[in-house]
Please model this.
Amino acid sequence: MTGGGFNTRAIHAGQEPDPATGAVIVPMHLTTTYKQDGVGGLRGGYEYSRSGNPTRDALHAALASLEDGTRGLAFASGLAAEDTLLRTLSRSGDHVVLGGDAYGGTFRLISRVLSQWGLEYTPADLSDPDALRAAMRPTTRVIWCETPSNPLLNVSDIAFLASIAHEAGARLVVDNTFASPYLQRPLSLGADVVVHSTTKYLGGHSDVVGGALVTADAGLGEELAYNHNAMGAVAGPFDAWLVLRSLKTLGVRMDRHCANAARVVEFLLDHPAVASVLYPGLPSHPGHDVAARQMSGFGGMVSFRLRDGEEAALKVCERTQLFTLAESLGGVESLIEHPGRMTHASAAGSPLEVPADLVRLSVGIEDAGDLLADLEQALA
Ligand SMILES: Cc1ncc(COP(=O)(O)O)c(C=O)c1O
Model:
């Protein structure tokens, strides 16, 4: 089933009742191999589960549908998806422009691992057209954008970046982890590939690590699917099943994440210990107009800076009781973290280093009053 609104597709796309039994939920196919009816006599094209698995295929179809793509692929982690993508799109001597505030793990993959194979890179402020143009080289194959970005929640104009990339013969990759396809669909705005850490909102319950790529370009989709199997960083059937199960509630979860985040932002703005609040839903946010144009809601991630610096930021992180001090994001439960010492520690000393007084919240779907009370006691 490919038609219908977002929530209908989240529940049904790729998820027809099982033809063998009528099971309404896609079965978890925990098998490595498939019986052949004579040599090469494959049933439904399945021969080995790295190459193909019906549970993972159902997730592929659902991901493609939700991101307005034609090909979805599920990986063992977000970084596994990124690695396969970058090694498909670039060769030794090629160049990548990435947002100056990309996720630390993405920066580490490019700067520490792929650079050893000759991949060149330039971090740039993607919201500044002059900085972006200055960063481009004749060898640039990829502009890598995360919007909203982790953890500074900067916003980039996807349609503009797509035009710059395509003028230069490069591809635009958008990491859509923070927004999810419920709030933003980059392929419809001109991006060539969408990346997800499905560990986050798509998984939504902090119980699975996974990644995804989606494209609407048939040729690129074929190349990625080839390398998905050839490089082997595929999602296992249990992990694929968990993400598929969670996609069904993505829309209702995102509505609640957005509503709770708006309450948290309102509270933080009025708090004397808080120097600034970073949230694309704020009219004062430099990317607000672009976010309002390309997103249908502003998401559940909120960052803020403390007037009294790093010590104060660390104290808040240690004092919350309902907001759990932990890395990751996008689950139903609220999390708090200190990016400088936790998720983005790998960017220390690099152009992607984050401010020491910054705290990042992943606002969950608990009762908003309880979340505000927890922040109030932690900031007191
Ligand atoms: C925006 C973003 N992209 C990619 C990743 C990497 O995903 P994973 O941890 O699933 O490998 C993360 C992880 O935090 C992330 O926040």
User: Anything to note?
Assistant: The first strand starts at residue 71 and ends at 75.
